[in-house]
């Protein structure tokens, strides 16, 4: 599986037989599992091997709280990968799209619950119609409660119902224009999602005039290097607009940016991070062997971490930052999309954040047998991520870095038991 480059997202042709692994939270087969799934089958792989080889038994038998990353791959059927250009990422970063998505999440989730249209799809529509302005309609971008529009459709005042109406309209138009049946769990390709978004935005005119979804800025702008700063096709397919689209991101680009999976699509976050999966991201960022004290040079760290670190942590990319345990854990949490707000640096600040955040359950000091993969262990001087044990007792159990001592790497059981013996507190993502 090809990984993504710095500050880029990839979309699998699973999208093309259609992305975006939750902001970020399990989409379709998107489900971020927030409860424990306890299966009796023991895993024989190490956690590192499980991540590399996609061992389903490892994730189930170790009660992994996040989605199973083995179900989707960030590559197409022919092995190709689509990357979201850095220019597009920077543009959407500047518009604070992830925060806006979170602020509007209730209405997006209401639409998903009522129609089966996954929330990132609704969010992408809202972005194109209204820039995710909470006072404006997902349905058509008008002010909520503004009444009947030119198409004879009512723009209601209730934001949840408005989002539901938009999702229903997407389903209806995708079916009537392109015969695409959208439902929860349906296997929809990237091309079909592109057609569905176009159907929502004058797709019938494009269809009548022999134009395709990849010619529409509404759908494709900023999605790849071949679709940057797109112009509208003009009359008769686009009778209302002409010239260059002032919005540099189309609906598919926004979908990719939000880093979620939709059916067979997976998008991986920057630097080989896996959206929604702390464990796999941590293992991708860490050396696959325990680093020894004294291995502190920046050149020794993984390429994945070297790529991701400067984009997810404001600290200068230089010694000793590369060996900082807190910055490492923070970068994993932020790059995976599980917690984009995670405190950046200083173990004391990280502990304060974990204690004050509603996203985590504070377990206090627990025994080794009470740990679950993805748990965060911290003392006043050190912080690590527990990645899970295996039945043969010979694997690595955690990942961490050590300030001034070593670059991020996997750690044997002793690294975990040392923390437990030091009365480390444990936090678990809810």
Helix and strand layout, with pairings?
Layout: E1 10-11, H1 13-16, H2 47-53, H3 56-61, E2 82-83, H4 86-94, H5 97-103, H6 105-115, H7 119-130, E3 147-148, E4 154-155, H8 159-178, H9 190-200, H10 203-208, H11 217-220, H12 251-257, H13 278-285, H14 303-312, H15 325-335, H16 347-356, E5 360-364, E6 376-379, E7 382-386, E8 398-402, E9 406-411, H17 413-421, E10 425-429
Antiparallel strand pairs: 1-2, 3-4, 5-10, 6-7, 6-10, 7-8, 8-9
Helix pairs in contact: 2-13, 6-7, 6-8, 7-12, 8-9, 13-15
Keywords:
10 strands, two-stranded antiparallel ribbon, 430 residues, 17 helices, alpha+beta, elongated
Task: Outline the structure in words.
It is a single chain. With 430 residues, this protein is α+β, with helices and mostly antiparallel strands. It folds into 2 domains: 10-32 and 67-257, no CATH class; 277-429, no CATH class. The chain contains 17 helices and 10 strands. The protein has a 6-stranded antiparallel β-sheet, sandwiched between helices. The protein has a two-stranded antiparallel sheet with strand order 1-2. A hairpin with a 5-residue loop joins strand 3 (147-148) and strand 4. The longest helix is centred in the middle third of the chain and has 20 residues, at 159-178. The protein is elongated, with a radius of gyration of 22 Å. The two termini are 29 Å apart. Residues 1-48, 58-82 and 260-272 have low confidence and may be disordered.
């Amino acid at each position: 599986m090809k990984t993504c480059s710095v500050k880029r997202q990839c979309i699998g042709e699973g999208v093309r037989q259609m992305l975006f692994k939750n902001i970020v939270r399990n989409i379709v087969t998107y489900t971020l599992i927030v409860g424990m799934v306890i299966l009796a089958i023991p895993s024989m792989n190490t956690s590192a091997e499980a991540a590399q080889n996609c061992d389903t038994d490892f994730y189930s038998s170790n009660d992994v709280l996040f989605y199973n990353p083995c179900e989707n791959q960030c590559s197409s059927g022919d092995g190709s990968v689509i990357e979201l250009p850095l220019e597009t990422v920077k543009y959407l970063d500047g518009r604070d799209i992830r925060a806006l998505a979170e602020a509007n999440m209730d209405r997006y989730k209401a639409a998903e619950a009522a129609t089966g249209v996954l929330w990132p799809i609704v969010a992408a529509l809202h972005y194109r119609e209204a820039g995710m302005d909470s006072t404006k309609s997902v349905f058509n971008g008008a002010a909520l409660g503004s009444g009947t529009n030119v198409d004879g459709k009512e723009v209601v005042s209730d934001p949840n119902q408005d989002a539901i109406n938009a999702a229903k309209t997407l389903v209806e138009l995708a079916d009537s224009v392109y015969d695409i049946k959208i439902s929860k769990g349906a296997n929809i390709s990237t091309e079909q999602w592109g057609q569905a978004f176009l159907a929502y935005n004058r797709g019938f005119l494009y269809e009548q005039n022999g134009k395709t979804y990849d010619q529409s800025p509404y759908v494709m702008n900023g999605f790849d290097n071949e679709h940057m700063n797109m112009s509208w096709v003009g009359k008769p397919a686009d009778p209302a607009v002409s010239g260059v689209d002032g919005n540099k991101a189309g609906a598919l680009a926004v979908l990719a940016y939000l880093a979620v999976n939709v059916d067979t699509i997976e998008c991986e976050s920057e630097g080989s991070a896996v959206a929604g999966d702390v464990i796999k991201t941590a293992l991708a960022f860490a050396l696959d062997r325990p680093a020894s004290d004294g291995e502190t040079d920046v050149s020794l760290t993984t390429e994945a971490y070297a790529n991701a670190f400067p984009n997810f942590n404001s600290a200068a990319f230089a010694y000793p930052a590369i060996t900082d345990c807190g910055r490492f854990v923070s970068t994993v949490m932020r790059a995976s999309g599980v917690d984009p707000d995670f405190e950046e640096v200083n173990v004391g600040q990280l502990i304060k954040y974990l204690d004050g955040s509603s996203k985590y359950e504070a377990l206090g000091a627990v025994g080794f047998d009470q740990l679950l993969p993805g748990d965060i262990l911290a003392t006043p001087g050190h912080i690590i991520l527990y990645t899970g044990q295996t039945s043969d007792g010979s694997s690595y159990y955690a990942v961490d870095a050590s300030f001034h001592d070593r670059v991020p790497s996997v750690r044997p059981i002793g690294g975990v038991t040392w923390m437990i013996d030091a009365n480390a507190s444990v936090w678990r993502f809810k």
